[in-house]
Amino acid sequence: MSAALPATPVLHSEWIKIRSLRGSFWSLISVLVLTAGIQALAAAALEPAEEGGLGDDPLLGGFYGLNFGQIAAIAFGVTAFSTEFHNGALRTSLTAVPDRTRFYFSKIAMLGVLMLAAGHLTGLLTFLAGQSFRGHDALELGDPGTVRAVVGCGLYLTLMTLFAAGLTAVLRSGVAVLSILIPFVVMVSFVVGAAATGVGQFMPDRAGQAMMRSQQYGDLGPWAGLGVLALWALAAVLAGWLAVRRRDA
Fold it and tell me: Under 8 Å CB-to-CB from 67, ≥6 apart: which residues?
């Protein structure tokens, strides 16, 4: 089992792939730019005393930009994996790393580490950017739930990235995964998840965003909601692992 664990040279090769692919690298950068940038613009456009401009929950409203940044996180997971299925790249990768389990989880680990670092930075800058325009109504990092929300933002983006990466390994098509996931989190989840009860609260984005709420959403508390998203991501990652192991390159 230890022979299949990610090794430093394999992890390094995955980092080189991500760094050298413009689509993957700029998707990672876009997570920070979109989330924090749109949060700052949205907060600046509202009057400091305006209530509910970014939603009913003031803490979650401090991460309004995440609605856009998560699309970049999904694109990062998709593009970093979909390149393996173009022009025989997977065959080349498996020639260099014959152990498919090591290859797959090295790629998953690198995606997770990079997004975890970028996600936590994004969470902190997004929170600070949004609150800087709220005047006396601004929340501070010491207020209840704020640190949890900042950390939760990073974890949320990481799990959404891994969710997208796992699905890409299953479908072997970045276009197909983007065509499914982006409408899923932008439209379907918004409509179905409008109610805090029933199946809507278990949608991956709705459940994961419970970490950034000051008030409980339906039956899910912050960590329970994150756990639901983690199960979605775990299911996708395991399905992707089985697909890489069993299918021809």
Answer: 186
Q: What is the pLDDT of residues 58-111, one digit of tens each?
A: 888 889 899 999 999 999 999 988 988 887 888 888 888 888 999 999 999 999
**What gap in Å lies between CA 247 and CA 214, rounded to an integer?**
45
- Using DSSP, state whether 180 is helix, strand or coil: helix
CB distance 126 to 36 below 8 Å: yes
Q: Are 25 and 115 in contact (CB under 8 A)?
A: no
| Burial readout 166-201 (b: 16 or more C-beta within 10 A, e: otherwise) | bbbbbbbebeebbeebbebbeeebeebbeeeeeebb
- Helix runs in 97-193, H state only: 100-131, 146-171, 174-183, 189-192
> If you search the block for the tokens 């040279």, which residue do you land on?
9
What is the value of pTM for the model shown? 0.90
Vertex 185, ends 177 and 162: CA angle to 5°? 55
